[in-house]
Design a protein that fits this description.
The chain has 18 helices and 13 strands. The protein is α/β, with parallel strands linked by helices. It has two domains: 9-205 and 328-391, Rossmann fold, CATH 3.40.50; 234-316, formyl-coa transferase, domain 3 (2-Layer Sandwich), CATH 3.30.1540.10.
Length: 397
């Protein structure tokens, strides 16, 4: 089946999450992604469990649809192989700390001289410029610097890290859209370019409502648990047997909620709850009043009633419940496949549903150096030359 990025060639020198997630999405859309892993042990995620038949599940999750070569870039022959790959590539991605690529001889200026049309994307914690550029930056540090941790958690509680590596994924998404934009430009002008993506910038760019509040009124986001900062009721509420989410975020929905769900018409004239902004100011009082009613029945009762009334609502799932929900499954967000060593496996599906060029699961994540010979043959190496690279520890076995 034809895919949107058929014909795009990507050399991926990134590891762990942000870069590999980016290249996984490009591969899902049809790009030929060659994952270049460091010699001799490969991507750091290969050392992270859980393991299935000694294969890291974490590694397998973000490296599907790629081909893999294990290459010693600290050797001249290893660099020679990489340079040959670059001459044929459309895109190159790396996530070293700034300055390392220059030492390795794989910086943008060096690779641009080999391939002027190359799109070169660097992903780092803090970016290639600025006073923090030389600092090591992981997702949790980016969450701290961007203010996310300070604004996450229960009111009067300790700051809390967001439950997923949100800055890593934000950087991956930023890299994806940037690479595709640069690729379109290259198709029109024939010119490559350099792209500098940082974890901090990428996550910070998602704080649009918080920035509006700060720039507009000088408000600093506070920890509010599940509550919204400017809308109410729009949060999690305790029921007789658990918690549910209710989002009556405008006046029409608020009226439906009062009249059809909790049967509290008096709340419509209560001065504490007259408008959305007033309700948000008095969100704690509103929460107490609502939970006095909700505690009389189980979550399923209220969710059915909310659905019938047309008031947005939903459960608060544990992760295993989410992965087994009938809607998630019907959207094909869980994919079954066979791995040559790990056997029957599951992975996450494709979030965007294309009518003409859908994402495809073509191959599982490569074993370490699985495509060494195949890739070297494509580059013009014969059997004797390949064996020489193996014996001189330029590639792995």
């Amino acid at each position: 089946m034809e895919q949107a990025l058929n014909g795009m060639k990507v050399v991926d020198l990134s590891q762990v999450l942000a870069g590999p997630y980016c290249t996984m999405v490009l591969a899902d859309m049809g790009a030929d992604v060659i994952k270049v892993e460091k010699f001799p042990n490969g991507d750091d995620t290969r050392s992270m469990g859980p393991y299935i038949n000694e294969e890291s599940y974490m590694y397998m999750m973000v490296n599907r649809n790629k081909r893999g070569i294990c290459l010693n870039l600290k050797t001249d022959k290893g660099l020679e192989v990489l340079y040959k790959l670059i001459k044929e590539a459309d895109v190159f991605i790396e996530n070293y700390r700034p300055g390392v690529t220059k030492k390795l001889g794989i910086d943008y200026d060096t690779l641009k001289a080999l391939n002027p049309a190359l799109i070169y994307c660097s992903i780092s914690g803090y970016g290639q410029t600025g006073p923090y550029k030389d600092k090591g930056g992981y997702d949790i540090m980016a969450q701290g610097l961007s203010g996310l941790i300070d604004m996450t958690g229960e009111k009067n509680g300790k700051p809390v890290k967001v439950g997923i590596a949100i800055h890593d994924i934000a950087a991956a998404q930023t890299a994806i859209q940037s690479i595709l934009s640069a690729y379109i430009y290259r198709l029109k002008k024939g010119t490559g370019q350099y792209i500098d993506v940082s974890l901090v910038d990428s996550g910070l760019a998602w704080t649009v409502w918080e920035a509006a509040a700060y720039f507009g009124k000088g408000e600093v986001p506070q920890r509010n648990g599940t509550a919204h900062r400017v809308s109410a009721p729009y949060q999690g509420f305790k029921t007789q047997d658990g918690f549910i989410l209710i989002g009556a975020g405008n006046q029409k929905l608020w009226e439906k909620f009062c009249l059809q769900v909790v049967h509290k018409p008096q709340w419509l004239t209560d001065e504490r709850f007259l408008t959305n902004s007033i309700r948000a100011t008095n969100a704690s009082q509103l929460e107490m009043e609502i939970e006095k009613v909700l505690c009389k029945h189980p979550s399923s009762y209220w969710l059915d009633l909310l659905d019938t009334s047309g008031v947005p609502s939903g459960p608060i799932y544990s992760y295993d419940q989410a992965l087994n929900d009938e809607h998630i499954l019907s959207r094909e967000m869980i994919v079954d496949y066979e791995h040559p060593l790990a056997g029957s496996m599951k992975t996450l599906g494709f979030p965007a549903k294309f009518s003409e060029t859908p994402g495809q699961f073509r191959t599982p994540a490569p074993l370490l150096g699985q495509h060494n010979k195949e890739i070297l043959t494509e580059l013009g190496y014969n059997e004797q030359e390949t064996q020489s690279l193996l014996s001189s520890k330029v590639i792995n076995n």
